[in-house]
């Protein structure tokens, strides 16, 4: 059986090929799976999708018509898949429910530290042999307040790092985490978290309830010198409202590893093209904003775990088994 994997990064390919070797044939494609590219899946019972594939109802309908019976998503999030349509079509869908939380949490702090200590402009200067310190003064994190929205595995690791830095911890989640409580975290409502935190980091899933969790009203509550970090999902932030806040001189820094309209932009080279996304183009002009291309998860440890779990999900599908990773299972 040949499985076709979509949205495969260059560094990811050898890990996928190694994990699948001796078990299944795999064809790795760097293109994304969507309405335009779905004909390439014809004849494949199983496809492996990436987080930026667009598996809407028409795409899923074409997959099913072409003989696909299972979608193995290589990510935790699955908001890019129309699960209702998948169920109606009898398609099995599985995800990777968890992988190394350290990868994302550490990267969130990488963005926060780089913003606070002006690392990017400092390196830009020294490459031009300008060694002045003007405008590069940061602040200690010790003694300041970290606000953690979402205290699951990733949020907990983020909180542990903040605790190690000697920070006060505020948290918000539907269910309180005992480990975070043991670190001294105080659970508060979002309004208080936004108002009192020096660093705000987003670690909640994207749902209808969390879409634009950080909107114009939330941004108004934040301190002018706060840092806002998003390594979760782009749709958690109303980017237009964020641009307005930045234009007004609000926030000391913003670190974004995700963007709500990143599909078709991230994971591609657009350096020789005109950027037609005016909001993203404007966002990139602010010197206190760092944008990275959804790479927080991209460590050898995390990607290896994601691929190993994907192989197990395929094994389970073929054996008509379900697991914590199962999203739809026609055979259950």
From TrEMBL:
Residues 110-296 form the D-isomer specific 2-hydroxyacid dehydrogenase NAD-binding domain. Belongs to the D-isomer specific 2-hydroxyacid dehydrogenase family. Keywords: NAD, Oxidoreductase. The keyword Lyase does not apply. Signal peptide: none annotated. Residues 8-325 form the D-isomer specific 2-hydroxyacid dehydrogenase catalytic domain. Pfam families: 2-Hacid_dh, 2-Hacid_dh_C. The keyword Aminoacyl-tRNA synthetase does not apply. This is 2-hydroxyacid dehydrogenase. One of its GO terms (molecular function) is NAD binding. Coiled coil: none annotated.
């Amino acid at each position: 059986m040949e499985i076709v994997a979509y949205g495969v990064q260059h560094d990811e390919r050898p890990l996928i090929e190694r994990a699948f070797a001796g078990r299944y044939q795999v064809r790795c494609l760097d293109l994304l799976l969507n309405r335009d590219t779905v004909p390439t899946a014809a004849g494949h019972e199983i496809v492996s999708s990436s987080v930026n594939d667009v598996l809407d109802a028409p795409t899923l309908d074409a997959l099913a018509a072409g003989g696909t019976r299972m979608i193995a998503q290589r990510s935790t999030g699955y908001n890019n898949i129309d699960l209702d349509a998948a169920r109606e079509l009898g398609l099995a869908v599985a995800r990777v429910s968890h992988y190394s939380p350290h990868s994302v949490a550490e990267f969130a702090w990488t963005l926060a530290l780089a913003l606070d200590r002006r690392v990017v402009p400092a390196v830009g200067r020294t490459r031009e042999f300008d060694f002045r310190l003007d405008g590069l003064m940061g602040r200690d994190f010790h003694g300041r307040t970290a606000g953690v929205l979402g205290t699951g595995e990733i949020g907990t690791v983020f909180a542990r790092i903040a605790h190690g830095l000697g920070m006060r911890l505020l948290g918000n989640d539907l269910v309180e985490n005992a480990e975070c409580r043991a670190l001294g975290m105080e659970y508060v409502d979002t309004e208080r978290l936004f108002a009192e935190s020096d660093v705000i980091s987003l670690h909640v899933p994207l749902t209808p309830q969390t879409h634009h969790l950080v909107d114009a009203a939330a941004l108004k509550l934040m301190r002018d010198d706060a840092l806002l970090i998003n390594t979760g999902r782009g749709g958690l932030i109303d980017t237009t409202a964020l641009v307005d806040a930045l234009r007004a001189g609000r926030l000391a820094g913003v670190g974004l590893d995700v963007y709500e309209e990143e599909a078709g932009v991230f994971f591609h080279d657009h350096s020789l093209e005109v950027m037609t996304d005016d909001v993203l183009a404007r966002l990139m002009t602010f010197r206190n904003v760092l944008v990275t291309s959804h790479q927080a998860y991209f460590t050898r440890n995390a990607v290896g775990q994601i691929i190993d779990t994907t192989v197990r999900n395929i094994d389970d599908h073929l054996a008509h088994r379900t697991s914590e990773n199962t999203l739809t299972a026609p055979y259950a």
